[in-house]
Write a structure and sequence with these properties.
Structural class of chain B: alpha+beta
Number of helices of chain A: 19
Radius of gyration of chain A: 29 Å
Low-confidence stretches of chain B: 1-15, 22-38
Domain Rieske (chain B): 280-349
Distance between the termini of chain A: 59 Å
CATH class of the largest domain in chain B: Mainly Beta
Region (Disordered) (chain B): 1-47
Number of strands of chain A: 8
Strand order of the largest sheet of chain A: 1-4
Distance between the termini of chain B: 76 Å
Radius of gyration of chain B: 38 Å
Number of helices of chain B: 8
Shape of chain B: flat
Largest sheet of chain B: 7 strands, antiparallel
Largest sheet of chain A: 2 strands, antiparallel
Subcellular location (chain B): Cell membrane
Transmembrane segments (chain B): 57-76, 96-117
Pfam family, one (chain B): Rieske
Structural class of chain A: mainly alpha
Oligomer: heterodimer
Strand content of chain A: 5-15%
Mean pLDDT of chain A: 89
């Protein structure tokens, strides 16, 4: 047995704290906490680390940034703008870029980390969705994640608006126009946010407070809750990696996971620093100070706002004026509906799935996307809806680069956002079922080894081999199709939950959800190839095509 | 790891010469399978190999340290000589060096730790039980009892008067923000109906002039009134503002945001005037609000040949010859037109405000 005594420098403080807090009990339970491994589990970590980078670089920037819209003459070291009238916010952003050592680097790291934060949030949420990791008991964390995503978008919009350059000013102008379109209270919201008419004197200082204090505070609180819930519930595990619904396998938090995670943080910081050093982002000095009468063509927001930009561009000019009031549908619909569908859909999905499938069990082992074809297809439909609207936000660039008529791109996207998701749904579902068939084929007679043998009689045969144990475990993690919800109970009376139009809908949806599932049987070992079996095999193979 | 598959492989040659090599076990199918084991911490170490790995890890840590030292040296010695970077060239150079060295520093540490975890840590994979997170029925009902007892003890259920008056007392607190935040901004009133043109025209008319002169939008110092004769080439397009708008001090930008106007010169015979606005143009010079009626971007692009005004934000397109009617895009209303005339000295003047609110639609607009 190894010597278990710690050096005094460690045991001293440890005991000192334990005497007062009883912390050893907690630490004993948690230092060896198991963390399952999978590359996709690192996506959320990127989001966490980029948030930390945002906090660090953000604090640096606040030390010089002046959130003020007072007009000043610029007299810093960037020659082309010397003597130009601009807001103090813009002047101080130039000061950070050109007169503070490392300032430009910090600004660029901050901006890149912000993009990375939102991008990794998206990737993480897609991973959670496609593997079904949001299922009971993890719905709370799914909702917290949605809240984080929403806040991150607003935080980003406020952040890139702060420098008060020509590009970000245009973004604020659009924000104002969208606010105005809200029925009844729109103009009040506009006046109250801007402290009067656009642009006024108040919007930059107000956004600054929200951007550096209120919103990051809420984000930090939500991330903390997110992590604590994850820690408490234990992480989900990918199928076929040893874990079951009753146990979790992996490497202990201390030392392996901790070290891996630490290295990962360093890599994230290295990547953002690399981008900040060599990939220019938001060169505000090229845009000039904000001028409400000026605009540059090809103005694009940061990528996560692209969906709103695209929706606004595609909307036909609908507006209703009646009884002395105006309802500006051409702004209201694109501002609310697409994001409403994406966020609303994501918010109700866990409950919807529980209701449709009648599955109220706890799930700790994730689904392989192919084994939940309806969910995977719905997710892909959502991605194509979002992605097409996002692309539509760049239709001027597409039109210019590919020499397509601008209006033609608009018309294309007007139809594509409806047809695309349907196609994506159908195609994805077919692909999932195809992959299920391929799994079934592997289990039925092994996988094709790519070796042809010739028997003494001259018969050619392809060698099939048994898949590895890990592969078998992965394939057999598939849950066989659950029986459809009973329409009638034991006494022939229509069952609770299947009565009435809502009940019928539920039964229909249930059949639609569970309808297609390719059973997996066999042990994966190739058969002895008797003549008859070979024929059977061939016909089965035909079926799996 | 190929042992397993060899058991079931047929006897005979593994591979015919001249054919592509057989698929390595698991390479296609079992990417997450036993192949991955190589990359996990192993439980046993070969001490000789480990020593070598240790030196490699240490080397990476040294690289990281050297990069950090390099960062500090560059920072003090080169990046900000004479207290400033003096423009774009120095900023770029300094950004490359500082960022590059910072990257190397983080990367060196990250790579070192990663090799350490993968090659030197001897932790074995472990498993832990998952517990049902829900509490047993007994605890639940005992909690329910406690809650009920507490409610009884406090009299919360027994004394509805207390409960209701307390709720009543607390309700106004919820309204507090509505009151406290009232002074965030003024009420909209009729603000959005008029622009600075109205005020400027009124002032000019009071002084006995036909209207307010148009100045070219080129900053407070450079702006000058515009003569009709100076803007006489068909196809031209410029941005103009009411004279005196730059004297408004910190209000100027807010007024420009509403009063910005585009002046276009079109062959007079091509203009299809709006009814009642036939005399609002001067020799084919026509003025429209520059603020897009969609969400307020400046509709700043003008195509001479088609006479189209295009907003670069969301591509609302207006026909300049036809009262700036919307011909494509999400804007629902034409750009309002500004009435123009010429004063005795030949300067272009506006004789009134836009006939309707400029910019995006809003509820009270009607």
């Amino acid at each position: 047995m190894a010597d278990t005594s710690l050096p005094k420098a460690v045991s001293g403080p440890l005991n000192h704290i334990d005497d007062r807090l009883g912390s050893s009990n907690f630490l004993k339970r948690n230092v060896k906490k198991v963390f399952p491994d999978h590359w996709s589990f690192l996506l959320g970590e990127i989001a966490l680390y980029s948030f930390i980078i945002l906090l660090l670089t953000g604090v640096f920037l606040t030390l010089w940034f002046k959130p003020s819209m007072l007009e000043v003459h610029y007299d810093g070291s960037y020659g082309p703008l010397q003597g130009v009238m601009m807001s103090e916010a813009y002047a101080s952003s130039l000061h950070i870029s050109f007169d503070v050592r490392g300032g430009l680097l910090m600004r660029q790291i901050h901006h890149w980390a912000a993009l990375l934060f939102v991008a990794s949030l998206m990737a993480h949420m897609l991973r959670v969705f496609f593997t079904g990791a949001y299922r009971k008991p993890r719905e709370f964390n799914w909702f917290i994640g949605l809240g984080l995503f929403t806040l991150a978008m607003v935080e980003g919009l406020f952040g890139y608006s702060l420098p008060d350059d020509l590009l970000s000013g245009a973004g604020l102008r659009i924000t104002q126009g969208v606010l105005e379109s809200i029925p009844v209270v729109g103009t009040y919201g506009y006046m109250f946010l801007f402290g009067g008419e656009f642009p006024g004197q108040d919007i930059i200082p107000r956004m600054f407070t929200l951007h550096i204090l209120l919103i990051p505070g809420i984000i930090l609180a939500l991330i903390t809750a997110h992590m604590m819930i994850m820690w408490h519930q234990k992480h989900t595990q990918m199928p076929g990696t040893g874990g079951t619904e009753q146990k979790v396998t992996g490497y202990p938090f201390y030392p392996v996971f901790m070290a891996k995670s630490g290295a990962y943080f360093l890599f994230t910081f290295a990547v953002t620093a690399l981008l900040g050093a060599f990939a220019q982002i938001n060169p505000i000095w090229l845009y000039g100070p904000y001028d409400p009468a000026a605009i540059s063509s090809g103005s694009q927001p940061d990528f996560y706002m692209g969906i709103l930009e695209g929706s606004l561009r595609l909307m036909p000019p609908w507006e209703i004026t009646a009884f002395g009031y105006t309802l500006s549908l051409s702004v209201l619909i694109p501002a609310l509906v697409p994001l409403g569908i994406v966020f609303g859909g994501a918010a109700v999905w866990p409950a919807l799935e529980r209701w449709v499938t009648g599955d109220h069990r706890n799930h700790h082992v994730n689904d392989r996307p192919r084994n939940a074809p309806t969910r995977t297809a719905a997710g892909m439909a959502m991605i194509s809806f979002y992605g097409l609207l996002w692309l539509a936000g760049a239709n001027d660039i597409i039109s210019e680069r590919f020499h397509i008529s601008l209006f033609a791109t608009t018309w294309f996207f007007r139809f594509a956002i409806f047809i695309g998701p349907v196609l994506a749904f159908i195609i994805t579902k077919r692909i999932c079922l195809g992959l299920q068939r391929s799994d079934a084929a592997t289990m039925a007679h092994g996988y094709e080894a790519g070796i042809i043998t010739m028997s003494p009689e001259g018969k050619f045969e392809e060698v099939h081999r048994a898949p590895s144990a890990a592969e078998v475990a992965k394939i057999t993690s598939k849950e066989e199709a659950r029986p459809p919800l009973p329409a009638v109970d034991a006494n022939g009376v229509p069952a609770k939950g299947s009565k009435g139009p809502v009940g019928h809908l539920r039964t229909r949806l249930n059949m639609w959800w569970n309808g297609d599932s390719i059973p997996v049987d066999g042990d994966g070992h190739p058969h002895e190839h008797h003549e008859q079996e070979l024929v059977e095999d061939e016909s089965r193979k035909e079926l799996t095509r | 790891m190929s042992d397993e598959t060899n058991e079931t492989a047929p006897a005979g040659p593994e591979r015919v010469i001249g054919t592509p090599p057989p698929v390595k076990s698991g390479a296609l199918l079992a990417s997450g399978g036993s192949d991955g084991e190589d990359y996990q911490p192993s439980t046993e170490l070969d001490e000789r190999k480990a020593k070598r790995t240790e030196r490699i890890v240490a080397l990476w840590f040294l690289i990281a340290f050297a990069a950090s030292v390099g960062f500090m040296v560059y920072f003090i010695g080169w990046s900000g000589r004479d207290g400033g970077m003096h423009g774009l060239e120095r900023a770029r150079e300094s950004n490359f060096w500082l960022g590059g060295l910072m990257t190397l520093s983080f990367l060196g540490m990250g790579v070192g730790v990663t090799i350490w975890v993968r090659k030197l840590m001897t932790s074995a994979p472990i498993e832990q039980a998952r517990y049902d997170l829900s509490t047993d029925e007994e605890t639940r009902s005992s909690l329910a009892q406690d809650l009920k007892q507490g409610a009884l003890d406090s009299g919360l259920t027994k004394r509805p008067l207390l409960r209701r008056t307390l709720l009543l007392a607390a309700a106004p607190l919820g309204l507090a923000p509505l009151f406290l935040l009232r002074d965030l901004g003024p009420l909209p009133e009729k603000r959005l109906r008029h622009t600075y043109w109205a005020k400027a025209v009124a002032k000019a008319k009071a002084a006995g002039k036909p209207g307010v002169r148009l100045v070219v939008d080129s900053g407070a110092e450079a702006s000058a009134p515009l003569k009709a004769a100076d803007f006489n080439t068909p196809g031209g397009m410029i941005t103009v503002l009411p004279e005196g708008i730059y004297d408004l001090g910190h209000e100027a930008l807010t007024q420009i945001a509403k009063a910005a106007t585009i002046l276009i010169n079109i062959e007079p015979d091509k203009i299809k005037p709006i009814k009642g606005q036939e005399n609002w143009t001067v020799n084919g010079i026509i003025a429209y609000s520059k603020i897009c009626t969609h969400v307020g971007c400046p509709a700043a692009l003008y195509e001479q040949t088609t006479h189209h005004i295009l907003c670069p934000c969301h591509q609302s397109t207006f026909d300049a010859t036809d009262g700036a009617k919307v011909i494509f895009g999400p804007a629902a209303r034409p750009l309002p037109q500004l009435p123009l005339a010429v004063d005795d000295e030949g300067y272009l003047v506006a004789t009134g405000d836009f006939p309707e609110p400029i910019g995006p639609s809003y509820w009270e607009r009607g």
